[in-house]
Design brief:
The chain has 502 residues and is mainly β. It has three domains: 285 residues, TolB, C-terminal domain (Neuraminidase); 91 residues, Sandwich (Immunoglobulin-like); 100 residues, Macroglobulin (MG2) domain (Immunoglobulin-like), CATH 2.60.40.1930. 1% of the residues lie in helices and 50% in strands. The protein contains one helix and 39 strands. It has a five-stranded mixed beta sheet with strand order 33-39-38-35-36, with no helix packed on it. It has a four-stranded antiparallel beta sheet with strand order 3-2-1-24, with no helix packed on it. The protein has a four-stranded antiparallel beta sheet with strand order 4-5-6-7, with no helix packed on it. Strand 35 and strand 36 form a beta hairpin. It is elongated and about 95 Å long. The N terminus is likely disordered.
Length: 502
């Protein structure tokens, strides 16, 4: 694995190693906090933090070995970083003030370049534990470590997208360093850049629409930006020296980066379009790998969403409708809505709102079943556990109840069978009700043969949670072809199931 040196870099070595510059990190839309960075100003590399105007530069780590590659958590309260203080490169985490430094990984191989998921519950990183540099992920406490990539050539420098759905990374799998993107489970690995030079160190814009990166395609390392799908690749910096390590400000207006344009590696910032580059550090030693602290915006008023309800109708046990929310915000805001039932999240939605009253209808999945749901309401950029509001929303069943599962079998109570032999003379139909029909509703089932004719109809007074019906033909074979069974509660269709004979 080619990675940033663990000793002060000479200019010549930096040119070679900049193609795998340290971790860069996706930030959530929020206020701009401090900039964390690695510095060798005290002899060995340590983690420092400073205000965006370069004031109040403070040392956060003081280990005798090397601490590098800081990465802010989405709530701005913790920093993950790489350290070899225990004799090997491992991932650590600490509070924003440098306290409670804790080791997360522990194996003989190199673990580096941590990057947080937007919710703050997972950390992606680079590891050589399986003999090659690949991308791994673990929970914030270091548990559940698992491999996401398995290329024979190095995959390094992960960067999590702001919506949490994808991870950008750098790979040499096609013979040259390029930027790739994949789903968070490691699937759909896609190449975004194809330049002849090295394209390295991806960094997502807070809105998720763009990715900044460093490239030497024009002769030396400069900063570029492209759309999230790899189109529109545009150069941002132009000088004869090295610009690497892009890191977006949480509000998306600025990019911090590392440059040796003044003869030494220092931290700079510039506008997102590449203009107005400003030097922030002036140490005689190297300052590298900046990352920007997100600070959560003030929460919306506690009663921003005053009402939340399901609006729609049921058709054959399928709910077709929307979640309707209404209320008022005193200022423009982007709310996050998460509809949950137990551990399952049914809906994740952002809701941009101008100041004033609002009423919005958000389509919900048709797989919803009757029951009680929890609606968590927060701000874009706020940690999931810091929701501003929580409401209970009840989805009520129709009078005919709701069938959550329907199947047929060759014996009463048997396992599902989709296709029966031509000799079939008995078929059992089963319907599981997630919500029972109201009292007084008679449940009936009708069998329709391949010609669409009613073959048999059976009635029962009221369904239990599972209601089963049996169709027989006195041991004579039923007609071959596609059959359909329809269950009704009263006169309304509650569910249906199809199968084939022959």
């Amino acid at each position: 694995m080619r990675t940033r040196a663990l000793v002060p870099l000479s200019v010549g070595v930096a040119v070679l190693l900049a193609c795998v510059a340290g971790a860069v990190h996706a930030a959530s839309a929020a206020f701009n906090g401090k900039i964390a960075f690695a510095s060798a100003r005290q002899g060995g590399y340590d983690i420092y933090a400073m205000n965006p105007d370069a004031s109040d530069q403070q040392r956060l780590t003081d280990a005798p070995q090397t601490d590098i590659e800081p990465s802010w958590s989405p709530d701005g309260r913790r920093i993950a970083f790489t350290s070899n203080r225990d004799g090997n490169d491992e991932i650590y985490v600490m509070r924003a003030d440098g306290g409670a430094q804790t080791r997360l990984t522990s194996n003989p191989a190199t673990d580096r370049t941590p990057t947080w998921s937007p919710g703050g519950r997972d950390i992606a990183f680079t590891s050589e534990r399986d003999g090659n540099a690949d991308i791994y992920v673990m929970t914030e406490d270091g548990s559940g470590q698992r491999r996401l990539t398995s290329s024979p050539l190095p995959d390094v420098n992960p960067a999590w997208s702001p919506d949490g759905s994808r991870i950008a990374f750098q790979s040499t799998r096609d013979g040259n360093e390029e930027i790739y993107v994949m789903n968070v489970d490691g699937g759909a690995q896609t190449r975004l850049t194809t330049a002849a030079g090295a394209d390295v160190s991806p960094s997502w814009a807070p809105d998720g629409k763009s990715i900044a990166f460093a490239s030497n395609r024009d002769g030396n390392f400069e900063l570029y930006v492209m759309s999230a799908d790899g189109t529109g690749q545009t150069r941002l910096t132009r000088n004869l020296d090295i610009d690497v390590d892009p890191a977006w400000s949480p509000n998306g207006a600025l990019i911090a980066f590392t440059s040796n344009r003044d003869g030494n590696y220092e931290i700079y910032s510039m506008n997102a379009d590449g203009s107005a580059a400003t030097r922030l550090t002036t140490s005689a030693a190297e300052d590298t790998t900046p990352d920007w602290q997100p600070l959560a915006e003030p929460p919306p008023p506690a009663d921003a969403v005053k009402q939340a309800a399901f609006r729609g109708s049921w058709k054959e046990s399928t709910y077709r409708g929307a979640l309707e929310v209404s209320g008022r915000v005193s200022r423009a805001a982007v709310l996050t809505l998460a509809l949950r039932q137990g551990r399952r999240v049914w809906l994740n939605q952002t809701l941009p709102l101008p100041a004033g009253t609002f009423r919005r209808s958000i389509p919900v999945p048709r797989g919803l079943l009757p029951g009680t749901y929890q609606l968590d309401i927060g701000l874009v950029g706020s940690p999931a556990e810091k929701t501003s509001q929580r409401k209970v929303v009840v989805l009520r069943p129709p009078a005919e109840g709701v069938v959550s599962r329907a199947w047929v079998s060759d014996v009463l109570g048997g396992v599902p069978v989709l296709r029966f032999p031509r000799t079939t003379s008995l078929v059992a139909a089963h319907f599981r009700f997630a919500a029972l029909p109201r009292p007084g509703r008679v449940v009936s089932v009708a069998w329709y043969d391949p010609a669409g004719r009613l073959a048999r109809s059976i009635r029962k007074p009221r369904a239990a949670s599972v209601v089963s019906f049996l169709a027989t033909r006195n041991r004579a074979p039923m007609p071959a072809g596609d059959w359909q069974v329809v269950v009704r509660a009263g006169g309304t269709v509650a569910g249906r199931v199809s199968y084939r004979i022959g």
